[in-house]
Amino acid sequence: MLQPYLNKITQGNSLDILQQLPPQSIDLVVTSPPYFQQRNYGNGLDEIGQETSEQAYLDRLLAIFRECVRVTKDTGAIVFNLGDKYKNGGLQLIPFKFALQVLAQEQVFLVNQLTWNKLNPTPRQDKRKLVQATEPFFVFAKTKRYTFNVDDFLQHLDVLNKKQRKASSGIGKKYYQLIEEAGLSEIEKENAKKALDEAIQAVFRGEISSFRMKIRGIHKLAYGGQAGGRNNQILNNGFSIIKITGNKLKKDIIESPVENTKDNQHTAVYPLYIIQELIKLLSNQGDIVVDPFNGSGTTCVAAKILHRQYIGIDINSDYVELARRRLAETDRKQELIF
Ligand SMILES: C[S@@+](CC[C@H](N)C(=O)[O-])C[C@H]1O[C@@H](n2cnc3c(N)ncnc32)[C@H](O)[C@@H]1O
Predict the structure, then answer these.
(1) Do both 170 and 33 map to the same domain?
(2) Is the pTM of this model over 0.85?
(3) Is 333 inside any structural domain?
């Protein structure tokens, strides 16, 4: 049954609670389980992370992941964020061992391994290691029909690019003057101005991010003047326009500082910003988002702001209370954070 858990934070062992949920009832799971032997949240034997061996930890995590697969719809996705651990001076690659075992055991595939680039990692420089400033978010799906709103992901960066494009189209206007000064024939001048108009419009329409213009008599020919496509254009037509398509790619990297835990008693909070972007990418309004290791409720807060439904589960009653308080203070009309 879904209803008793919907838009609520439930206290309990996530394995038990997930088993109560119907198959194929959830659109998205986003979570960050406790890392191996990192913190003791004081919840006894059911708590994940305190196992004596790495494989025992992975096995318990995999059992919970299996339940996530069962409850997730064919159009859904499952996102797990994990951190690594050093042992005898070496990284254990625990997140990657987890991902490999998931792929070997479950009917899912890895859509992306999104890397969180921490803008403010712990400023402790080891003399024999670089500062560890990244963590993976593994994005798994069950079928090729997974929801993927690529245009919504990091959309605010597109807006920033648009502003840059506008500035660059202003710079383009200097070329009108250069065309007049270049000593081109009347017909060449006319064609050059027409091409320049079109390039500026293409920038405004967002088809290109910027452009450069080379004008005969003003600019040097490329590659020392040898014959070639662009040089021929400049010699024969009086000008050439180089279009720059810019970077509209949505890459598997996301930059964000580690959350400040000053106003949050939870010691391992992940950034609301990253979760907000993942929820926009992988679900639609009204969809149900689950976090089986809910902690202070970051996933549910992001889901609420983004008009999704949520289910939060945590074993620790203090964190359950904390998440409930955070959610009560969260308004659906709240601004997204950038
Ligand atoms: C890394 S924290 C999650 C923090 C969360 N992402 C946030 O932003 O606040 C992991 C959480 O898992 C909880 N936990 C550990 N074992 C659990 C279990 N078996 N079932 C449910 N929750 C568990 C811990 O109490 C802890 O709050």
Answers:
(1) no
(2) no
(3) no
Q: Is 312 in the pocket of ligand 1 (CB under 6 A)?
A: no
The three state secondary structure string of 44-98 is HHHCCCCCCCHHHHHHHHHHHHHHHHHHEEEEEEEEEECCCCEECCEECCHHHHH
Nearest CA to ligand 1 atom 22: 314
- Give the DSSP H/E element, type plus range, for residue 239: strand 239-244
Same domain, 92 and 69: yes
Residues 22 and 91 occupy one common structural domain: yes
Cβ of 293 closer than 6 Å to ligand 1, yes or no, is: yes
Higher-scoring residue by pLDDT: 110, 197: 110
Torsion angle of the four alpha carbons 198, 199, 200, 201, in this order, in degrees rounded to the nearest 10: 50
Taking only the tens place, the pLDDT of each residue in 240-263 is 988 877 657 899 999 998 877 666
Per the DSSP assignment, residues forming a β-bridge with 134 are 117
pLDDT tens digit string along 5-19?
Answer: 999 999 999 999 999
Question: Please, which residues bridge with residue 290 across strands?
Answer: 29, 311
> Distance, CA 61 to ligand 1 centroid (Å)?
12
pLDDT tens figures, 24-40: 999 999 999 999 988 88
Atom of ligand 1 minimally distant from the CA of 292: 21
